[in-house]
């Protein structure tokens, strides 16, 4: 059977999160015909063959000289799904569980308006909900306040490209091909999703939010600001500034500056401080 709706997940580690995501997809009201998992420098995941009703394929990601190739890995997954016949492709972060209507909500929105890059509200689950039952997700629904959150049954258009994030989104194969997917100059953490939002808007297409496509981000430990990704953020910020004329992620960069990790140059660019760069 030719797959028409596919889900693409990129992963490095987080195997338990991926297993739970797979279970949530298998419990969907509409099953995706294909789940493409792109393993980034993860030989254990390359051998993963889950049981269940989903047709899962595990691909090996391209390599990244400076870190995990998030942009290239997503492109590899989308290209594989589209080549297999999918017209609706959903991108999920490995940490995200889906609600029972998420796949159907994305499928309907993408087919109704195939030029729109669609996103759905994402709830960050608390630590104590790490192993919650899938049927309890609706009771935990509390979408991130920094992003639009239409109610179930609602859609909004003309989304701000600065607010696009790759945790949960969907696109039509024709729109994806026209825009070109993620820019693979970005390697490691940061800015590749904002770049896609800007590229999509620059093509004359809209970004939208669909209330039925709710996702739930499983808890994991993280730093705020993400100092472990400092080099990636500075390097990818430089790429974004060259492509679009301004720096992204300036909230984090300002926090790094207060910590003495970066400084701002007279031309507006950000660089590692001399003491940090020498380490």
Please provide a written account of the structure.
- Helices cover 31% and strands 19% of the residues.
- By secondary structure, the protein is of the alpha/beta class.
- It folds into two domains: 5-217, Spore Coat Polysaccharide Biosynthesis Protein SpsA, Chain A, CATH 3.90.550; 227-277, no CATH class.
- The protein is globular and about 55 Å long.
- It starts with a strand and ends with a helix.
- Belongs to the glycosyltransferase 2 family.
- This is Glycosyltransferase family 2 protein.
- One of its GO terms (molecular function) is glycosyltransferase activity.
Q: What's the quick description here?
A:
The chain has helices spanning 15-26, 43-46, 70-83, 102-112, 173-179, 192-202, 230-244, 250-258, 274-277, and strands spanning 5-11, 34-39, 56-60, 88-93, 96-98, 117-119, 122-124, 155-156, 168-172, 207-210, 215-217, 262-264, 270-272. By secondary structure, the protein is an alpha/beta fold.
Question: What order do the helices and strands come in, and which of them pair?
Answer:
Blueprint: E1 5-11, H1 15-26, E2 34-39, H2 43-46, E3 56-60, H3 70-83, E4 88-93, E5 96-98, H4 102-112, E6 117-119, E7 122-124, E8 155-156, E9 168-172, H5 173-179, H6 192-202, E10 207-210, E11 215-217, H7 230-244, H8 250-258, E12 262-264, E13 270-272, H9 274-277
Parallel strand pairs: 1-2, 1-4, 2-3, 6-10, 7-11
Antiparallel strand pairs: 4-9, 5-11, 6-9, 8-10, 12-13
Structural class: alpha/beta
Whole-angstrom Rg: 18 Å
* Helix proportion: 25-40%
CATH architecture classification name of the largest domain: Alpha-Beta Complex
Count of spatially separate domains: 2
The first-level CATH class of the largest domain is given as Alpha Beta
Largest sheet, in brief, is: 8 strands, mixed
N-to-C SSE string, H for helix and E for strand? EHEHEHEEHEEEEHHEEHHEEH
Let me know the CATH homologous superfamily of the largest domain.
Answer: Spore Coat Polysaccharide Biosynthesis Protein SpsA, Chain A
Shape: globular
- The beta-strand count equals 13
Protein name: Glycosyltransferase family 2 protein
Family: Belongs to the glycosyltransferase 2 family.
Keywords: Glycosyltransferase, Transferase
GO molecular function: glycosyltransferase activity
